[in-house]
C-alpha cells in the first residue's frame, strides 16, 4: 500500500505546538490520567495528533478547527471528506497500525491513519470505513487489554482521499478531537 507524504510547513508546526499547549492546559481530565502511553508525554500526544490532523486537512484542503473544549469533543469528527465524517488517528510507532480501545470508539464514517515519519513529515497511510473496520479488524493485547486493530496494509489507499469523492468540505465549528496512538 502506498501512503501519501505530507510536509508540514513551519507555520503549520507552530500551529500544532500552539494548539497542543492550549489543549493540554484546558482539559478537565489530563490526558496522562487515562492514557496508556508509556513513552510519550500528554503534550506530545496532543502534538502528534495535531500533526496528523493538519496533514490530512492540508491534503483535503480542509481548515483545521482551533476551538478547544475543556470537556473534549463530544465525539465530533475531526473533519469532513465530502459528506463523510472523519477521525484522524496518528502514531509515531513503526510499523503503523490503526488501533481502537474498543469498537464503540469508531464514531465517525471514516478513520484515517497517519504516521509521523519525521518532525514535519507525516505519512497518511490510508483510510477505512466503519463497516470495513468492523469486518476486517482483529484483536491484540498490548499489555493493557485487548484492542481492535488493523494493519496499514489493510487500509484503503490514501490517494482516494484527494482523487475520489469531493463533495464540498464544510468548515467545522465544533471542537477538534484527535486520538493518538503514541
Can you tell me about this structure?
This protein has helices at residues 10-26, 31-34, 42-60, 130-136, 160-163, and strands spanning 4-7, 79-81, 84-91, 97-100, 110-118, 121-129, 138-141, 146-151, 179-181. The strands form two sheets. Strands 1, 2, 3, 5, 6 and 9 form a six-stranded mixed sheet that branches. A three-stranded antiparallel sheet has the order 4-8-7, with no helix packed on it. It is of the alpha+beta class. 28% of the residues lie in helices and 27% in strands. It is built from five helices and nine strands, in the order βαααβββββαββαβ.
Keyphrases for this structure?
182 residues, alpha+beta, 28% helix, 5 helices, 9 strands, single chain, six-stranded mixed beta sheet
Task: Provide a brief overview of the structure.
Helices cover 28% and strands 27% of the residues. With 182 residues, the chain is of the alpha+beta class.
Number of E-state strands:
9
Q: What global shape is seen?
A: globular
* Cα gyration radius (Å): 15 Å
Query: Which structural category do the helix and sheet elements fall into?
Result: alpha+beta
Low-confidence stretches: 165-179
Give the N-terminus to C-terminus distance in angstroms: 22 Å
Largest sheet report: 6 strands, mixed
Order of helices and strands: EHHHEEEEEHEEHE
Number of helices: 5
Mean pLDDT: 80
Query: Which bin fits the share of residues in helices?
Result: 25-40%
Strand content: 25-35%
Amino acid at each position: 500500500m502506498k501512503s501519501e507524504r505530507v510536509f508540514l510547513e513551519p507555520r503549520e508546526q507552530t500551529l500544532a505546538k500552539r494548539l497542543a499547549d492550549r489543549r493540554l492546559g484546558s482539559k478537565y481530565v489530563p490526558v496522562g490520567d487515562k492514557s496508556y502511553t508509556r513513552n510519550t508525554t500528554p503534550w506530545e500526544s496532543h502534538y502528534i495528533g495535531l500533526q496528523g490532523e493538519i496533514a490530512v486537512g492540508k491534503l483535503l484542503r480542509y481548515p483545521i478547527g482551533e476551538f478547544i473544549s475543556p470537556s473534549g469533543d463530544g465525539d465530533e469528527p475531526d473533519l469532513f471528506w465530502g459528506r463523510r465524517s472523519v477521525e484522524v488517528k496518528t502514531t509515531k510507532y513503526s510499523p503503523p497500525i490503526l488501533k481502537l480501545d474498543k469498537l464503540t470508539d469508531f464514531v465517525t464514517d471514516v478513520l484515517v491513519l497517519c504516521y509521523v515519519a519525521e518532525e514535519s513529515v507525516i505519512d497518511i497511510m490510508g483510510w477505512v470505513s466503519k463497516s470495513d473496520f468492523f469486518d476486517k479488524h482483529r484483536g491484540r493485547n498490548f499489555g493493557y487489554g485487548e484492542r481492535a486493530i488493523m494493519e496499514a496494509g489493510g487500509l484503503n489507499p490514501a490517494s482516494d482521499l484527494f482523487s475520489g469523492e469531493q463533495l464540498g468540505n464544510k468548515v467545522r465549528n465544533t471542537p477538534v478531537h484527535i486520538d493518538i496512538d503514541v
